[in-house]
Design a protein that fits this description.
2 domains, alpha+beta, 9 helices, Fumarylacetoacetate hydrolase, domain 2, homodimer, SH3 type barrels
């Protein structure tokens, strides 16, 4: 318990302590930790210039021992009231803070690790084949995305223009995407990199990954469908990918760890589980304020530890600030699907909103908010906050 | 003509002046320009600290007017002997210089712009379909690669481990790639970025792209074949991509500009040609010193100006240091193919080397060097130097 005025059931209590980058007025952005509805300025409270940076990268690069000792020091400040004199001058109400992209992104990789999502999309995109490709249960499929268009939560998303061609069209046409979608995902931020030629085993996940955020991988389904064979998604994704402002450290997720679902067939030895890195995150997707889906992250077939092991098994290096995302999180139930293309089954079964309108895909002006919580100690919840974005009309 | 002792037919005369990053002994890396077989230290010669950086990025970010005036100033130093006193102390023999990665890489995109290459690979990878996918002649197909594993020329390439599954195998196995390959490509370096929501028209290519280098996109064909459906290449490429040390500025390639091949069907208006940005680069691929291919870049179906226009038409931003590569350059003739999978037709028709050995794919110890020249003024050639790499055995 903290001596600060934070509700005992706050998802941002001392069991959480997520990191972000904030600024107040015209001051330079710096690193803070969220406690309740306030931000603790770490450069001031800990008297450490590594937190005076406009990104978490310098701190993350210090590695897991520094992450642990910093978390201990912050916890002590917040639970022992004798530190009131140090803490109070370093607190800013969240309402007065502007939140920034919390880290400088190295490489961005997007996985495809939900069996339910991959099966649903496979049925729609490749109706004459098995929904899962033959490789799907042998390796966590992933691809590189555009790191330069990773955007802080709240950045408006302009509907992209591009080529699209319906199966019946004789030739592609150019114009605004007609099938603009979301993908509710969970992102993993590499804090301590790994050199070229040094694969990261499944068991060393927590020595490299600093924390977890939420990702909305905005997707243009019509651009994607026309371009993606044979080299994968490109412009259908690269116009923007939004991330939540708070990076929840792995240490805050000890109570969220669960065994992943059983895998059949058994994966190759380099992908064998080592520690339970399934995570029981309860995600909620809201469209214009209305809850439209509750994707359960614990259903994911591949864990983030397996994703990192796979991504590096060929000797590829990782860097501080690399982001990899899970792919769309979808559960087995219809109201657990993490994309509109699944919720509306390719637009053929539009779903109703309480205002009487229906949606197949996103309309201009639509606002999407993805949030999540996870189990914490003693029945508390660990909050991720939310990643939001509003659709602006396409450029003329 | 320069007053320096440089052969009149040197591919590194004053008509070229490519930029790189070099160091001597333990001194910090800094920006230099190659003249003949020497490097001119620009921070010293021009008395400008922007060149004291270990990457071209700060200079490139200054934009096309600065690129032009800097080239004028360097040219003047080298053609007017009155500057001998300034120039000579700033020269280092190339043999004494260590060359580094010339720029800090933002995003890396790899295109697939050779019709001959795409047709050859299509025939091998998808024997029961048309060699070109239906989208191929409508848009320059591309995908994002791993920027953290862009390597300076000469970095040893360790044979990657990974999953591979031959069509007849019941299940994938794990181990060293058996079909390790090269891809001879040309890379384009973005100097002046473009903001989110601002597509770069074909006609504005030269306002954004700073220069051109050579790329070897090392490829593991067995890893790639098993993983790439449906989201594209990942571990089959991400273990390493080598780039040449010298960035040839666009201004040095005025005499290399040619009309691209005729396009049929006519591309959509945003991809219409505006200025001839086909480039007459003559590439040579050497394996253990033996010339094995001469890919002609002028045969490429899509120009780099079209690639940039496509990459940004959805509103995606670009940043200083972004690299995009052409994809394998292959010409219509068998000895113009830019990858071993084409030269050996999937390994089925191994080709002979003068030492009596044959190759389907790369063997441990093989060394690959890709070089290129382009037409310059008055019959001179513009040299790109080379990108090299030697295969090390897989990790045990």
């Amino acid at each position: 318990m903290t001596w600060l005025d934070v509700a005992p059931d706050s998802p941002f209590g001392v069991a959480n302590l997520p990191y972000g980058v904030f600024s107040v007025g015209d001051a330079a952005p710096r690193v803070g930790v969220r406690i309740g509805d306030r931000v603790l300025d770490l450069a001031t409270a800990l008297n450490d210039r590594v937190f005076a940076a406009p990104a978490l990268n310098p701190f993350m690069a210090q590695g897991p021992a520094a992450w642990a000792s910093t978390r201990d020091r912050i916890t002590e400040l917040l639970v022992d009231e004798r530190h009131r004199g140090v803490v109070e001058p370093a607190l800013t109400p969240l309402a007065d803070a502007r939140l920034h992209l919390p880290f400088e992104v190295g490489d961005y990789v997007d996985f495809y690790a939900s069996e339910h999502h991959a099966s649903n999309v496979g049925r729609m995109f490749r109706p004459n084949s098995d929904p899962l490709t033959p490789n799907w249960k042998h390796l966590p499929i992933g691809y590189h995305g555009r790191s330069g268009t990773i955007l802080p939560s709240g950045t408006p998303i302009t509907r992209p223009n591009g080529q699209r061609k319906a199966p019946d069209d004789a030739a592609p046409t150019f114009g605004p995407s007609r099938r603009l979608d979301i993908e509710a995902e969970v992102g993993f931020v590499v804090g301590a990199g790994s050199p070229l030629g040094s694969p990261v085993p499944v068991g060393e996940f927590a020595q490299h990954v600093f924390g977890v955020c939420l990702v909305n991988d905005w997707s243009s389904r019509d651009l994607q469908a026309w371009e993606y064979v044979p080299l994968g998604p490109f412009l259908g994704k690269s116009f923007g990918t939004s991330v939540s402002p708070w990076i929840v450290p792995l240490a805050a997720l000890e109570h969220a760890r669960v065994a992943p679902p059983p895998r059949d067939p058994e994966p190759l030895p380099y992908l064998a589980d080592d520690g339970d890195w399934g995570l029981d995150l309860a995600i909620e997707v809201r469209l214009n304020g209305h809850l439209v889906s509750r994707p359960p992250f614990r259903e994911m077939y591949w864990t983030p530890a397996q994703m990192l092991a796979h991504m590096t098994v060929n000797g590829a290096s990782t860097r501080t600030g690399d982001l990899y995302a899970s792919g769309t999180v979808s559960g087995p139930e219809p109201d657990q699907r993490g994309s509109l293309i699944e919720l509306s089954w390719g637009g053929k079964e539009p779903f109703a909103l309480p205002d009487g309108t229906t949606r197949g895909f996103l309309e201009d002006g639509d606002e999407v908010a993805i949030s999540a919580t996870a189990p914490g100690p003693n029945g508390a919840r660990i909050g991720f906050g939310e990643v939001t974005g509003r659709i602006e009309p396409a450029a003329g």
